[in-house]
């Protein structure tokens, strides 16, 4: 009785904290969707690229010589750009279309995690009381999956014009439609969704690795006389990724005059720095180690209950660790942890299956009483502190220049203080951007290290500075055109 009361109290505390974070997430999304200017470096290039598409430029002609007008470096394949250009016909604003695409994708990712943890990614265990595992479990899976929206980088980027959320969502849904061993599989459709994910952001590899490894393992463990079906599933999954991906790559490379790979591959081949990677990992571990511990506990419960969905969840999480290692790339950000966080939340949500199976099959065992309480307490601990989005002193994002320590989610410097700070700063940024817009439109051509400044005003910026630097370092581009104009007394307006 005491253990049950403690568990209910912990679940209530977790639910209240989660609701506070979700309100904070919704308010952040509302503020960004009503802000009319690019907010960070990455939104600017994407906005300029979608504007080119809306002006009638064929998609393959975007991938051209970055030293020639309109001086764009296209870091990603075209799927996200095409979706945003299409949605912009409805919204009237490419920036709003991009942000809505990201927000819808974040919600779609939550739905996919809920389905995967609810059994779509693995075989449901049998139990003597199946109804107890029914509606209550599905609601629990959905509730725990919503914790994905409390992750700092998800909260930050889910409402920005960024490709990552769409790629992540497509990958997770590829795993959903792949199905479970005991049910109907759709490997061909899963392969197409994974191909779409890779043609949104090629570095999102966790879902393709997990799906391929999962089906390969099923093939290897099947008796020799029964391998035809798992082999067919594996071929149906890999074929659209390999053949479709190769065909699309070849067509885009040929249509762009051999410029496509320079944009998508060479411009992303930044130097990897071990110290930079270590700093990112230390920051994530310090803030979210309880979430990782809760995922490990949930994994132990799922293994103990012999839940077949453990394998894909674990494979996805381990693959997410591999992609997160790329955070040491110069210019990288904590978005490299997105797949790892999605995997951890998947494990936490899936752990509910193990907890219910454990409590029903072994009601008197101490583990059936203590482990659920421990899992809830760890999840609460992961939400007690949050990473502020905004610097409390300077008009900039928190941690952008100097480290910004985590703060208690509740209290004077809690979630609501950060939301109020965001409202004040966005109002100030809006006034500055409006004044800049008038100057930039009058100048025509500008030079800036903030691509959004040019894109928001429809101006041409002579160089996409960060990406151009990567190409210059590799000897794939130069500054001669810009330097020639400067030497001849034709300097663009520097912003």
Report what the structure shows:
This protein has helices at residues 2-33, 43-54, 59-62, 79-91, 94-120, 135-145, 152-157, 164-178, 187-198, 206-221, 228-255, 260-264, 274-304, 310-324, 338-361, 366-384, 415-443, 451-457, 465-473, 480-487; strands at 385-386, 407-408, 445-447, 460-461, 493-494. The chain is an all-alpha fold and 495 residues long. It has one domain (49-396, 403-408). Strands 4-3-5 form a 3-stranded parallel sheet, covered by helices on one side. It has a two-stranded antiparallel sheet with strand order 1-2. Strand 3 (445-447), helix 18 (451-457) and strand 4 form a beta-alpha-beta unit. Helix 13 (274-304) packs antiparallel against helix 16. The termini are far apart. 45% of the residues are buried.
Topology:
Elements: H1 2-33, H2 43-54, H3 59-62, H4 79-91, H5 94-120, H6 135-145, H7 152-157, H8 164-178, H9 187-198, H10 206-221, H11 228-255, H12 260-264, H13 274-304, H14 310-324, H15 338-361, H16 366-384, E1 385-386, E2 407-408, H17 415-443, E3 445-447, H18 451-457, E4 460-461, H19 465-473, H20 480-487, E5 493-494
Parallel strand pairs: 3-4, 3-5
Antiparallel strand pairs: 1-2
């Amino acid at each position: 009785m005491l253990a049950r009361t403690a568990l209910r109290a912990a679940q209530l505390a977790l639910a209240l904290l989660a609701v506070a974070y979700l309100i904070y997430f919704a308010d952040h999304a509302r503020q960004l969707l009503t802000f009319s200017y690019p907010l960070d470096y990455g939104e600017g290039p994407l906005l300029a690229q979608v504007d080119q598409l809306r002006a009638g430029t064929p998609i393959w002609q975007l991938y051209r010589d970055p030293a020639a007008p309109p001086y764009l470096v296209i870091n990603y394949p075209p799927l996200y750009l095409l979706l945003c250009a299409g949605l912009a016909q409805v919204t009237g604003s490419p920036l709003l279309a991009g942000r809505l695409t990201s927000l819808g994708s974040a919600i779609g990712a939550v739905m996919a995690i809920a389905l995967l943890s609810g059994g779509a990614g693995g075989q449901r265990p049998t139990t003597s009381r199946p109804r107890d595992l029914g509606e209550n479990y599905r609601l629990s899976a959905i509730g725990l999956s919503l914790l994905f929206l409390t992750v700092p980088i998800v909260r930050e980027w889910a409402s920005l014009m960024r490709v990552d959320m769409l790629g992540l969502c497509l990958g997770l849904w590829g795993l959903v439609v792949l199905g479970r061993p005991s049910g109907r599989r759709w490997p061909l459709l899963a392969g197409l969704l994974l191909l779409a994910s890779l043609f949104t952001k090629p570095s999102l590899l966790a879902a393709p690795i997990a799906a391929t490894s999962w089906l390969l393992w099923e093939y290897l463990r099947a008796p020799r006389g029964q391998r035809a079906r798992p082999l067919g599933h594996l071929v149906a999954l890999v074929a659209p990724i390999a053949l479709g991906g190769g065909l699309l790559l070849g067509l885009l490379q040929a249509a762009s005059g051999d410029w496509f790979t320079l944009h998508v591959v060479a411009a992303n081949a930044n130097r990897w720095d071990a110290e930079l990677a270590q700093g990112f990992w230390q920051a994530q571990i310090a803030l979210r180690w309880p979430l990782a511990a809760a995922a490990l506990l949930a994994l132990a419960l799922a293994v103990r209950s012999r839940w077949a969905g453990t394998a894909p969840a674990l494979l996805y999480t381990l693959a997410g660790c591999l992609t997160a290692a790329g955070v040491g790339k110069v210019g990288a950000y904590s978005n490299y942890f997105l797949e790892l966080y999605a995997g951890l939340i998947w494990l936490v949500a899936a752990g509910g299956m193990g907890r219910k199976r454990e409590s029903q099959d072994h009601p008197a065992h101490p583990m059936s009483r203590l482990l659920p309480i421990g899992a809830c307490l760890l999840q609460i601990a992961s939400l007690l502190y949050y990473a502020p989005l905004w610097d409390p002193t300077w008009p900039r994002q928190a941690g952008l220049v100097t480290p910004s320590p985590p703060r208690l989610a509740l209290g004077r410097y809690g979630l609501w203080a950060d939301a109020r700070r965001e409202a004040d700063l966005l109002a100030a940024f809006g006034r500055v951007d409006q004044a800049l817009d008038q100057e930039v439109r009058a100048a025509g051509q500008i030079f800036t290290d903030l691509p959004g400044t040019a894109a928001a005003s429809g101006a041409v910026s002579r160089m996409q500075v960060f990406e151009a630097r990567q190409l210059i370092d590799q000897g794939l581009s130069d500054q001669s055109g810009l330097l020639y104009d400067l030497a001849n007394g034709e300097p663009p307006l520097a912003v």
